[in-house]
């Protein structure tokens, strides 16, 4: 097992020997340099350059994908994961894509802040090669704990803190919201309300921003707070109707809340779209197929975004060294499109 | 780090030294003896007796619960897990109980036979301390692969093969079915059909057996096959109505199929319970609260069974050595009860 320092394809052992460090240290530097002191990093990098070392991707894949498993972390309690079809659709694309990469999906969720440390411990325990994290909230520490665990992670949805330089996949929430509200304006609607999602999630905040982009002078009381559940949409709609007798349009921050709003409108005998036009967000098959009338909504490709997340993660795992530095810029924003049906 | 052979509390090292084996071998024997040749097992057991060695439970807990994680394996595709509330209810009790034990729940599911080997590899990879496996089917190899992985496992539902000596938690499916059918008989119903669940699951087979226990001479054509989904219940009900104009009662093998049957009866203008009485199985809150009329059903404590599964598993992990031999007898069968509502 002697290695040729000057062979046609220098090995990592050769790099380690030239740098005067252990193979493990050389490996750590080549794979990102975490936990290695700066002078040693410098020595190894110089050796890599001098020898013209090219990392062996196949070998590194064996190291970076040694567990054959990827954690999917949904920062929501179990009852929401199973009742909101959004998560099923998200997981579906991921599940298929991970299977195509022969990686085992292990699903974790979060009942409350008490679970954060345990999840971070599990991630740090070396049981998964990477993680995909969803539905993170700005006021919890989970995002930071996940990043600190050192497990390569791709976030679903833009993380709240600008200090987290992690790759993420999101749709153009703000642009999609703008399109929804512009559509309602184009229909001649004058009193357009917004049922907003939870303010600790960037998707909800971005959609609020898109609403305000179009309706710069909207009365603040036209914005009613929901939490992405059907029930909150129904409640918000009732409040809005009480508050604004001349209301003629609603943009809801997701389809479930739009469906809740439609049920309130029906109960009150308000005609859709004649009296009040309604637009949702998501285009979630299992929700839009049941609404009456059929829901006009902003489509985001939920399954497709899940597949992109897996691809980003696998690219990181398969080419860890180089990708590491570029990871923050590897985020993907997908386009949305307005799907016109009967409700607006 | 020298160990006293004759100290007040002999150590495992002392046992190993006395038996003339390595500490690892002694440990394996103390923890069940898997993979150790019989003569060595004998030597270690003798040393244990001679020294009066008492396993240190706390230390063993550190070993047997070193990952702090338990896999929950549901042998169903993702779309069923998210659409059938049975699984949510099952997972809910487990999730709470695992949290109480500070163990991380990782959920795995099975899209098809192609996933079996990968799941077994994951389990065998030492990433979880134990597993809870549900909804296993008699015609797949998953049960055997799980057992062979060596991870302590408790099954939800009696496994099909009698050769698998694994602990399981199940309800009294056969007794519950008997009670349902006896109730329909007591109402004076003469033509009682059964919508059966999939024949590769013991729960469905046991409920069929319970139906036949009461209706020994039932016409085989009164039994119609479903697959535990709402749609299959609706289809089976239509077939039964076409086949038996004098049908006056149906026992469905689960609540979802009963709900599907009720929708078919409503569409056809058949009155429930006046014309046809309907009984389900499960008493699943999210299903029974929506049916019209309210569903009479056989209640099993789904959440409670999940909690029992975790307790059995934790007992095995915390006292692995002794429990190992008694594991096959540690299964639990819970009682069912008939919940009378409007449909029968």
Descriptive report:
The structure is a homodimer of 344-residue chains. With 344 residues, the first copy, chain A, is an alpha/beta fold. The first copy, chain A, folds into 3 domains: 12-54, Orthogonal Bundle (434 Repressor (Amino-terminal Domain)); 68-171 and 303-336, Rossmann fold, CATH 3.40.50; 173-299, Response regulator (Rossmann fold, 3-Layer(aba) Sandwich), CATH 3.40.50.2300. Helices cover 46% and strands 15% of the residues of chain A. A 6-stranded parallel β-sheet of chain A has the order 2-1-3-4-5-11, with helices on both faces. A 6-stranded mixed β-sheet of chain A has the order 7-6-8-9-10-12, with helices on both faces. The longest helix of chain A has 17 residues, at 302-318. The first copy, chain A, is elongated, with a radius of gyration of 24 Å. Mean pLDDT of chain A is 87; it is low at 1-7 and 323-328. Chains A and B meet through helix 5, helix 6, strand 2 and helix 7 of A and helix 5, helix 6, strand 2 and helix 7 of B.
């Amino acid at each position: 097992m002697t290695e040729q320092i000057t062979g046609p394809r220098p090995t990592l052992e050769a790099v380690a020997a030239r740098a005067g460090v252990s193979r493990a240290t050389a490996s750590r530097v080549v794979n990102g340099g975490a936990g290695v002191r700066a002078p040693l990093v410098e020595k190894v990098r110089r050796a890599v350059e001098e020898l013209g070392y090219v990392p062996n991707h196949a070998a590194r894949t064996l190291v970076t994908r040694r567990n054959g498993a990827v954690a999917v972390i949904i920062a929501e309690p179990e009852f929401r994961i199973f009742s909101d079809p959004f998560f099923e659709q998200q997981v579906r694309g991921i599940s298929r894509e991970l299977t195509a990469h022969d990686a085992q999906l292990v699903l974790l969720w979060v009942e409350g802040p008490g679970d954060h440390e345990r999840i971070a411990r599990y991630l740090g325990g070396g049981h998964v090669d990477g993680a995909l994290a969803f539905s993170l909230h700005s006021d919890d520490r989970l995002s930071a704990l996940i990043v600190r665990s050192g497990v390569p992670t791709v976030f679903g949805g833009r993380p709240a803190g600008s200090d987290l330089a992690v790759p993420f996949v999101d749709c153009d929430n703000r642009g999609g919201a703008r399109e929804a509200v512009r559509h309602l304006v184009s229909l001649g609607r004058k009193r357009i309300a917004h049922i907003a999602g939870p303010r600790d999630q960037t998707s909800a905040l971005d959609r609020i921003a898109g609403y305000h982009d179009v309706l710069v002078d909207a009365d603040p009381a036209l914005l009613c707070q929901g939490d992405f559940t059907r029930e909150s949409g129904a409640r918000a709609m009732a409040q809005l109707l009480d508050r604004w007798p001349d209301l003629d349009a609603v943009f809801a921050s997701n389809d479930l809340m739009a469906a809740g709003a439609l049920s309130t409108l029906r109960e009150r005998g308000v005609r859709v779209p004649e009296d009040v036009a309604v637009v949702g967000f998501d285009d979630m098959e299992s929700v839009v197929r049941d609404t009456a009338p059929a829901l006009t909504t902003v489509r985001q490709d939920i399954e497709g975004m899940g597949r992109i997340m897996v691809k980003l993660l696998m690219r990181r795992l398969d080419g860890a060294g180089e990708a590491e530095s570029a990871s923050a810029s590897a985020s993907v924003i997908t386009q949305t499109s307005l799907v016109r049906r009967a409700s607006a």
